[in-house]
Amino acid sequence: MGNAKAFLTINRKEAGYRPVVDRVADFGEVEQTLNSEDRMLQASRCMECGVPFCHWACPLGNVIPEWQDLLYKGKWFEAYNLLIKTNNFPEFTGRICPALCEKSCVLNLEHQPLTVRENEVAIAEHAFLEGYVKPNPPQKRTGKKVAVVGSGPAGLAAADMLNRKGHTVTVYEKDEYIGGLLRLGIPDFKLNKEIIERRLDILKAEGIQFETNVEVGKDIPAEKLLSKFDAVCLTIGAGVPRDLPVEGRELKGVYFALDLLKQQNRMVSGQTIPSAQQISAKGKKVLVIGGGDTGSDCVGTSIRQKAAKVTQIEILPAPPEGSNPATPWPAYPNILKTSSSHLEGCERRWSLATKRFIGNKGKVTGVEVQTVEWTQSPEGKFTMKEVGEPEIIPADLVLLSMGFTQPVHEGLLDDLGVKYDARGNVAAVQPNESSVEKVFVAGDVTSGASLVVRAIASGREAAKAIAACLN
Fold first, then answer.
1. I want to staple 135 with a disulfide (CB 3.0 to 4.6 A). Which of 163, 205, 347, 378 is the partner?
2. Which CATH number fits domain 6-130: 3.40.50.720, 3.40.640.10, 3.30.310.180, 1.10.1060.10?
3. What predicted TM-score, i.e. pTM, was given to this entire model?
4. Cα(214)–Cα(218) distance, integer angstroms
5. Does the structural domain 243-402 have CATH classification 3.40.50.10490?
């Protein structure tokens, strides 16, 4: 510990966001950066606890106190090298991770946790700026070939680790861009896509082969994939969105959240979308159904598209602010989360169930909602009951953001004959191994929809299992 009293004398300092009036006018990243001196001071606040709960909470097992100390001492090169021992892509997680580590930080007992996430991305950006990040291809190849199907964070992590072992890795992606939902599902105002392209340039230079616009199971039959490669790693995510099959669902103007987000990301990347196909919030009353991060992304995107009004509703009750006795430290707290998008102008409402979509001439004009109350039985089971009278929320554009239920079974998964678990995910009969010989799984395809940081961790574990099988 370089400064044993820093946590007592230095307060938490966040970089903060660009002014609202500026950031809503473009899709540039909203988060600002601190100068190096302030960043090193923030790192000095780490107490290097005897029991590092931050390390315990991180799915990647990042050795957080150690690289905080290196950052405080100005040893940026050493800090980056230690960081990437456990995290393949700190420039991604440093931007979009919900920072489970910070919620478990001992200093969070005083609501002043270490700025772990911001420190992480600062180290990564310094490393790229100073040229520390260079291609390091394996010195020799094993002759073994591995196919990774899906190029999201789990797939990229698995490919990176397998390539380091000297295996020849080919990554298949059904879309035109590499990155999965990391690339098309997360808005540029949270993760500029040049950050992904920069890392992909490194991975390509290290020998990983990428094939885009290839849907395995359709463009390449499953049996051909199995015969061509020594191992296959499935990282296709949980691609089936949760729907809302109520009256009026067929009305024009009701879309899944990713319909909007993917299209906007393509447009920011320079693609031209025919006007008749564009999903635009300009001048419209937008209703986002679902209170999670993807819903928040829809809020920010709609605001940038110049929506007349944006409302976000959630069927669950509003969580408490600040702290929640039901989820005490060091567990991840179930508390109210206010994103940068919410701060840009959004009405948020809770405990509302959607009853039906209302339309005129085939277009949505409003949504009928009903207030609900939640009660918990002594056994812990929650039940919902409707109270009061229904209400109609005017809406010209409705975005369904209620998560994902399972991976797409039709095509590749059914053709392979993998077993599914009770939730419809690909069952892992052994850690990261499917029921089909030499077919492995990682990320949301087997865990269900989760976090980017967990996907990276899962990809790394799958790579270990594959490498052990190929030896």
1. 205
2. 1.10.1060.10
3. 0.97
4. 8
5. no
